[in-house]
C-alpha cells in the first residue's frame, strides 16, 4: 500500500487512492471522501467514492455542524456510532439518517502549520467501527495530509518563483528608465508598495504591465 501512495501521481489520484483504500481495507466503510478547507467555513469535497459523501459534506457546510466539519476545524478525530442516538448534531444527524448513513469516522488532516481538512469515512450500519478501523483510518489520513501539504508547498514555491520573476522585470524597467542600480530599484518598489498599501509582487506586476503598454507601438488607423 505504501509503495502505491508514493509512486509518481497527481494529487487527485493520490487522494482517490486514499478514499478507495478506505473502502477496500475497512469493511465497515461504505463510502468516503476528503473535505478540504478553502476558507473560513468553506469546504470542497475531493476524491469521493460516491455522490453520497458530497451531499453529506454540503449539508454540513450549509448547517454549520457535523462530524466532518468538526474534524476539519478543530477535533483530531470524530466518531459517531449511530446518528439516530448521537445528540451532538441535532440538525445534521436526522438528515444523515434520512440519507441512509448511520455511522462515520472523521480524521483531521493537519500539519504543524495549519489544518487542511478531514478524511471522512461513512457507514450505512450502526456501531460498525472498532479500534482497528480507527488505527487504519489514521494511517490513511496521514497519507492524505502529506499529499495535500506537499501540493500546497509546491504551489507556493511556483507562485514565489513567478513573483520573483515579475519583481525582477520591474526592477529592470526602473533601472533602465531612471539610471539606478538594482538595490535602488527594489527600494523604490518597496517604498511605493508601502505608500500605496499594495503587495510588492502586485505592484511590480502593475509596473510591468504599464511599462509594456507604454512601449507598445500605436495601433494602426
Describe this structure as you would to a colleague:
By secondary structure, the protein is an alpha+beta fold. It has 2 domains: 11-153, 2-Layer Sandwich (Beta-Lactamase); 156-212, Orthogonal Bundle (Arc Repressor Mutant, subunit A). The chain is 57% helix and 16% strand. The chain contains 8 helices and 5 strands. The chain has helices at 2-6, 11-25, 51-63, 67-73, 92-98, 131-178, 182-196, 200-215, and strands at residues 31-39, 42-46, 77-80, 103-110, 115-123. Strands 2-1-5-4-3 form a 5-stranded antiparallel β-sheet, with helices on both faces. Helix 6 packs across helix 7 (182-196). The longest helix has 48 residues, at 131-178. The model is unreliable at 2-8, 153-161 and 215-221 (pLDDT under 50). It comes from Rhodococcoides kyotonense. InterPro entries: ANTAR, CheY-like_superfamily, GAF, GAF-like_dom_sf, GAF_ANTAR, WH-like_DNA-bd_sf. Keywords: Kinase, Transcription, Transcription regulation, Transferase. GO terms for molecular function: kinase activity; RNA binding.
Please supply descriptive tags for the structure shown above.
single chain, 221 residues, alpha+beta, Beta-Lactamase, Arc Repressor Mutant, subunit A, 2 domains, five-stranded antiparallel β-sheet, 8 helices, 57% helix, 16% strand, elongated, transferase, GAF_ANTAR, transcription
